[in-house]
Amino acid sequence: MPHTRDVPDDPPPFLRSWRRVYIATLIYLVLIITTAWIFTRFYR
Amino acid sequence: MTNLDWVVLVLALVSIVAYGLYRSRGSNTVDRYLLAGKSMPWYAMALSIMATQASAITFISTTGQSYVDGMRFVQFYFGLPLAMVIICATVVPMFHHARVYTAYEYLEKRFDTKTRALGSIIFLCQRGLSAGLTIYAPALVLSVILGWPERTTTILMGATVVTYTVLGGIKAVTWSDVQQMAIIFVGLVISLVTVIVLLPSSVSFGDAVFLAGAAGRLNAVTTNFDWNDRFNLWSGLIGGTFLFLSYFGCDQSQVQRYLTGKSIAQSRLSLLFNAVAKIPMQFFILFIGAMVFVFYLFVQPPLLFQQAELKRIAALSEFAPMNDQYQRAFNARKQAALALVDAHHAGDSAGEERRRAEYRAAQRELDAARSSASKLVSETGGEKGFNDTNYIFLSFVTKYLPSGVVGLVIAVIFAATMSASSGEINSLATVSVIDIYQRHFKRGASDHHYLWASRWLTLFWGVYAVVFAGWAKRLGSLIVAVNKVGSLFYGSLLGCFVLAILFPRVRGTAVFTGMLAGEAAIFATAWFTDISWLWYNVIGCAVVMIVALVITYASPETTYATPGTQAQE
């Protein structure tokens, strides 16, 4: 059974580095939790 | 179901299967059948990952859970972006560079044969159990709507999924998933719009949201810490992160999706898309459940949503007083809800507080009547711990949604089942062939031989899932059951992979012992304590790591191992 080939490790198509993409994802998480918390408080 | 509903349903299902099979042409080698020849673009993998995770259970059970318990289940997904970032930075490049078909193949490269075998067996046990649950949910839908026995509908669903999964391999699975997610998105939007349109003309969308919030159905975030509380911010962030690390890092049903990527970047993008999209999607589904709750403030819901059990207990003497209490509570809640909206519009804060208290008291009375009815079902020969949460959304759809939309929503549920189930069956077959059959029973056979072995094992797991689905109805709320079953096994696998990546000195025997200890600790926790299942992953992972590290550092230092190479025992 032939082994699968190796694949290239390219930079992301935006924000220039993967480190920045990861940080942006974590900032997004903080924002979404904050929004959900405000939503809960507002309609409680 | 009207004729139009049937046309919509059949068209949707036929187009999904046909499109998947059309895109899977040329899957005539093991590499193409199991990994799509590493040719998939990020968006196809992203939607396939999302579709595999969003089973029919997501739509049936999550909406019902929101109806009875509010939106706090969304916190379960708060750990997902954290887990995705960690996986993208570590596991994705590691698996690609190791050139593996399965996550457990890597364990042999890093540790030894027995660790790979144990990892594979743990996966087969865990995913094999949930495969039955995945098929059971839509079988339940059909049995409610058509009045067919659940066994018949289970076999029909299983046969459809197995057909295109066996014939097309992972390409058919992935491209079908893409189309299924499109149908799911359309169906969800139409469902929410329809619920809102069906509200009384005197109740605006803003009023509906206000009433849902006043009844505690918009409790998306709860910040209090409680070990026994399944869903709060902390269990979501900590327990959820561990669960999703295990799920996306160690579960072949997900790992196989991103191993089909053209490049590491494409695989990472597919996971990060899920990190961003999953929480809003779950929020949206839960919000539909909250709006169904508001709809039933003005239209009396049945005492129980499971019609067969309701009919059975209606003949009992205890039913009449229970039903009277329920009707009184419904009328009181309806009046209080309308009065609360009026007080809110008038800006009368004292009146609003008083009406809010009446509204909540009526809700408690209503819940008490429903609880008594459920108890009556259990005490009079019905299912033990009877729970009708899974019937709430379906009952609403079939009774109140217009012709055509019912067919579309049922197609959504079918599409979700087919995507989740095909992914599970495909990954179970892959692990069975690569990690068990090829590794331990038949080494060095031809590519053609393993291709057919993959197809036969896909068929085997499909049949197994159908048989196991018959047992699934005893497990209560389905969405919880699936994750609970997963949590019994994921922690040990996660601990194993964390040790593989972060601790080069740890070797196979130490990890193997740690995994056995981890499983024992998880089952002991589940059996003897009330600790919520979201924490099982944390406990299992911690025990595996502690035991393996103690064994490693207590024994004389020998050869170091590095990721991607096998340690010398």
How would you characterize this protein structure?
The complex is a heterodimer of chains A (44) and B (569). Chain A is mainly α and 44 residues long. Chain A has one helix at residues 18-43. Chain B has 569 residues and is an all-alpha fold. In chain B, α20 packs parallel to α22. Chain B is globular. Mean pLDDT of chain B is 86; it is low at 560-569. Chains A and B meet through α1 of A and α2, α5, α6, α10 and α13 of B.
Could you name the key traits of this structure?
heterodimer, A: 44 residues, mainly alpha, 1 helix, elongated, B: 569 residues, 0% strand, globular
List the helices and strands and how they pair.
The complex is a heterodimer of chains A (44) and B (569).
Chain A: H1 18-43
Chain B: H1 3-23, H2 30-35, H3 42-53, H4 56-69, H5 79-89, H6 91-98, H7 103-110, H8 113-146, H9 150-197, H10 205-214, H11 233-250, H12 252-259, H13 264-298, H14 307-314, H15 319-346, H16 349-379, H17 392-400, H18 405-441, H19 447-469, H20 478-502, H21 508-528, H22 536-554
Helix pairs in contact in B: 1-9, 1-18, 3-9, 3-12, 3-13, 3-18, 4-13, 4-18, 5-11, 5-13, 7-8, 8-9, 8-18, 8-19, 8-20, 8-21, 9-13, 9-18, 9-19, 10-13, 11-12, 11-20, 11-22, 12-18, 15-16, 18-19, 20-21, 20-22, 21-22
Give the gist of this structure.
The complex is a heterodimer of chains A (44) and B (569). With 44 residues, chain A is mainly α.
Categorize the overall geometry of chain B.
globular
SSE series of chain B: HHHHHHHHHHHHHHHHHHHHHH
The overall pLDDT average of chain B reads: 86
Which oligomeric state applies?
heterodimer
User: What's the number of helices of chain A?
Assistant: 1
How much helix is in the residues of chain B? over 70%
Task: Tell me the Rg of chain A in angstroms.
Answer: 19 Å
